[in-house]
């Protein structure tokens, strides 16, 4: 992992390979490690850049609230520091997708394409905001292991629990190793994120939407609505997968990403 100074903090980043750049942006409350199966495959003919976001993994933590726009600014700063001049394919999962919308709004010229996995366009409901605030308080009081226990049952398809318990155990370890302050700040940041539904018809960027068939957080139905609203988007439903589709069924996910990347070639 490289350590890169960006916007007054240090971000840890996995940066490997040569070729068109792909930026992999993890979900909440995880780290770049969730993309391992994609990094391995796509580093062969791409430059794969997978940071730990502010507050996560080996990156510095900021207390308070960290907005999705702040994360997008961090990513733009990171690309500057890594001398990435070419537009990137931005591949984000869930919170990584919330950040992608902000990146698209602010840094459209730096974007070649979007891969949006298991994410949402709407803002939180008032009840959702309250849940985020409760979680932020709970993690400071009780620690990250408590968040892992609350969240894990919702992240995976029952098929994964049957087939690959080690993937679930590994994700638990990632969450437990995450800073409580980092989790709280991102939770409060997600609560503030705007509804981007009205922006979708103007996003001309080539986009691939990916959703686990058993995703109960960002459901296939909701993601189909997003895809239908975007002028240049395709959607793929991943069998035997829930909210963590790239990790639960990497073979299927990589098989749909590969031709999407091939079609982008200049
Ligand atoms: C994520 O996977 O990033 C979270 O489920 C996002 C959320 O809590 O909305």
Brief overview:
With 266 residues, the protein is of the alpha/beta class. The chain has eleven helices and eight strands. It is globular, with a radius of gyration of 17 Å.
Q: Report the sheet-strand fraction.
A: 15-25%
Instruction: Please outline the major beta sheet.
Output: 8 strands, mixed
Distance between the termini: 30 Å
Low-confidence stretches: none
Please give the count of helices. 11
Tell me the overall shape.
globular
Strands ordered across the widest β-sheet: 1-2-4-3-5-6-7-8
Distinct ligand kinds: D-malate
State the helical fraction.
40-55%
Q: Which structural class should the secondary elements be placed in?
A: alpha/beta
Tell me the number of strands: 8
Order of helices and strands: EEEHEHEHEHHHHHEHEHH
How large is the radius of gyration? 17 Å
Mean pLDDT: 97
């Amino acid at each position: 992992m490289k350590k890169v100074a960006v916007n007054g903090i240090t971000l840890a980043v996995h940066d490997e390979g040569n070729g068109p750049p792909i930026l992999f942006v993890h979900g909440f409350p995880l780290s770049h490690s969730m993309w391992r199966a994609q990094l391995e495959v796509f580093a062969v003919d791409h430059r794969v850049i997978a940071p730990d976001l502010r507050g996560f993994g080996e990156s510095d933590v900021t207390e308070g609230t960290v907005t999705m726009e702040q994360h997008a600014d961090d990513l733009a700063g990171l690309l500057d520091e890594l001398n990435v001049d070419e537009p990137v394919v931005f591949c984000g999962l869930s919170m990584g997708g919330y950040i992608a919308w902000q990146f698209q709004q602010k840094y459209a010229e730096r974007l070649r394409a979007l891969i949006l996995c298991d994410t949402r366009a709407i803002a939180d409901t008032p009840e959702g905001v309250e849940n985020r605030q409760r979680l932020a308080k709970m993690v400071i009081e009780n620690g990250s292991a408590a968040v892992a226990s609350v969240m894990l049952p919702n992240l995976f398809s029952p098929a994964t629990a049957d087939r690959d318990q080690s993937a679930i155990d590994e994700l638990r370890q990632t969450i437990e190793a995450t800073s409580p302050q980092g989790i709280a700040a991102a939770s409060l940041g997600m609560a503030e994120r705007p509804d981007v539904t009205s922006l979708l018809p103007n996003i001309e960027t080539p986009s691939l939407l990916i959703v686990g068939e058993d995703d109960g957080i960002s459901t296939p139905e909701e993601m189909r609505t997003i895809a239908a609203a975007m002028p240049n988007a395709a959607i793929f439903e991943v069998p035997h997968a829930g909210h963590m589709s790239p990790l639960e069924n990497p073979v299927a996910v990589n098989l749909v990403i590969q031709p999407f990347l091939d079609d982008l070639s200049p």
